[in-house]
Each structure stands twice: as C-alpha cells, then as structure tokens.
C-alpha cells in the first residue's frame, strides 16, 4: 500500500469527532496504521522513533482533515440538533464551576494515563491483543468521571473540528498543549521503566513498540 493510500485510510479512520469510537477504530485499522486518531499520539510515537517525520506529518494532516470535515458535515446535516445545548457541536470545554486550570490538569492526567497504559499494553505479548478493549474501557471511564472537568478531549484534532463548527476557541489551546505534553511525558516515563530503572514483578517490555504505518 502506497503513501497516498495510507493517507486515504487515515482520513477515513479519523473522520469522526465522537469520543467513544476509539475501540472500534483500533480494531478496524490498528494493524495497518496504528489507529493513532490523535496528533498527540502520533508525535509521541515519533519521539519514540516508531514513525518517521514524513508519515507523522501525513498522519497529523489526515487527523485534522477528518475531524474538521466530519464536524462540518454534522453541522450542516444535523443543524440545530448538533447545536443543541446538550451537544454544543461537541466543543471541548470545562463545565461550571470548573475553570481552564482544572481542565488543563484533568486533560494532562487522563492523557498521561491513557498513553502509559497503551505503551505498556502494546509491548506485552500477553496483553497486546487487549489494547482496543483496555483503551475503550479507559475512555468509557473518562466519559463517566472526567467529562465535566474538561470535556474529555484527549485530542487536539477533534477539539479543533468542534471549535471550528461552533466558532468557539476560548479553551482550544488547552487541548493542544495538555494532551501533547502529557503523552510525551508518559513516553519518557515508559522509556525509564523499559531501561529497568524501576523493578516490576512482571516484565512489560517483552516486545518492541510497533512501527507504523505497516506498508506490507
């Protein structure tokens, strides 16, 4: 599969701004593209040396195009339903009485935990096959527990698509900075663990992190 086909696949897999589709996308596309969905994930994998610069840029472009296109599609097809106060175009923002500081901290925590869990899972021969399930459970818990604090974005592309649809940008910077810093921090912690600076009963790095995209 060539680079253009990879770009098309990535656009399809990212073409939804919803928060609860991650498990399905990982199952459908994970073996080929890694189902990053998220620029913060992509650039964390770049930091880990598991995706090259050119592909990182293509992934990021596809992720933003998919999120923006779908938000606009929903805006013009669902109209007032998508604008309903319960949906608000899916805009990422803290709910009263929470503020931007709370949202930043909450986004950082959930992004850090998700990335660290994913890295540990995909490098374990025992648990690798459960990565989609584990990620889906984490996302579901975040939706139940964390949603009021920040809107539970995890993803700058998704938040950008929703902000453009709603023409609301007050909190958008949080969803670029917090998830990206958190996931990069999680990668650094993972590398420290992998080098054996902490001892664990079970070995977590019994296989390498996959490299994406898989062309063959």
Q: What can you tell me about this protein's structure?
A:
The chain is mainly alpha-helical and 216 residues long. It has a single domain, classed as Glycerol uptake facilitator protein (Up-down Bundle), CATH 1.20.1080.10. The protein is 62% helix and 0% strand. The chain contains nine helices and no strands. Helix 1 crosses helix 4, helix 3 runs parallel beside helix 9 and helix 5 packs parallel to helix 9. The longest helix has 26 residues. It is globular. It starts with a helix and ends in a 22-residue tail after the last helix.
The helix-strand sequence is HHHHHHHHH
Report the oligomer.
Answer: single chain
Q: What's the end-to-end separation, in Å?
A: 7 Å
**Structural class of the secondary elements?**
mainly alpha
Low-confidence stretches: 1-30
The tally of beta strands, per DSSP, is 0
Question: How would you describe the shape?
Answer: globular
> How much strand content do the residues show?
under 5%
CATH class: Mainly Alpha
Secondary structure blueprint with pairings:
Layout: H1 3-13, H2 22-33, H3 39-47, H4 53-78, H5 100-122, H6 131-145, H7 147-150, H8 156-166, H9 172-194
Helix pairs in contact: 1-4, 2-6, 3-4, 3-9, 4-8, 5-6, 5-9, 8-9
